[in-house]
Amino acid sequence: CSSSCSNGGTCSAPNTCSCPSGWTGPTCATPVCSTACSNGGTCSAPNTCSCASGWSGATCTTPVCSNACSNGGTCNAPNSCACPSGWSGPTCASPVCGSGCGYGSCTGPNTCTCNPGWTGAICGSPICNDGCGNGVCTSPNTCTCNYGYSGSRCENLGCLITGCSGRGTCSSNACVCDSGWSGGSCNMPVCSGGCINGVCTAPGKCECKPGWTGDRCADVAPLCPNGCVNGYCSGANTCTCNSGWGGATCNSPSCPSGCANGYCTSPGTCTCISGWSGMSCNSPVCPQGCNNGVCIRPDSCRCNQGWTGQYCTEMCIDSICNSV
Question: In a 10 Å sphere around its CB, with 0-12 CB exposed, 13-18 middle and 19+ buried, how is residue 173 labelled?
Fold first, then answer.
């Protein structure tokens, strides 16, 4: 053999090597890996792979993340982590807050740490340390005063100058507000328990921010694209109607006793067709009355014994009557 046989091979014929297990090639210099080396790896010795950067394992199939994946994340490609819900970033070290943290930072999955002067689940509510007696807190330690009031806490002026908005009476320069109203000028509606994700626009009535619903705007709003005219959205495309209303969008009034000869036009109220009256439109109308009988259908009387005529006004003669 003009070239010597390597790695324990023997010259078995002119220029022909017989190689031992794990080697091949003209001079037995090429190693054999029974399972191919993946992801750019090379066979460097019998059944031994030299892996490319970012891979490891017997056949180079295990990705390597130089910085470990945190918070339950897994390495799914070189230096790439698959993060569990609530975490993101190259090493799954960054928490995720789905609704954001308006004036704060996300410090854990759906957990905000608010900047000084702010509070609330998403750090969207300002704090006024001394309160805003006759106004509302609109930014940290900043009050927006009701009409007629001023001062850092909206403490100046009173109803002798501003009046009570027609919703209270002025007593000793202070308003005594009617039920459902508050504030120095009785211009702030009262919603018992507050409007958590909205504003109080009238006594007991909250106007919710987009995405919120409920009496106090505390419930996440399900999707009802056609609205719920006289009710509220309680599930996807599902309305729960107020008493007296029905239909897919709560726009159909309900009359429990029915409207026999008319139409239900509002909860418990029938509009009768001509010739009928009564709560359920089941009482016929005889415009001229039935003086000596009863009205049995529109403009038609049934006369008492001894009477006849369209409106039972004619007395029978010699006990002979024509029934009407």
Answer: exposed
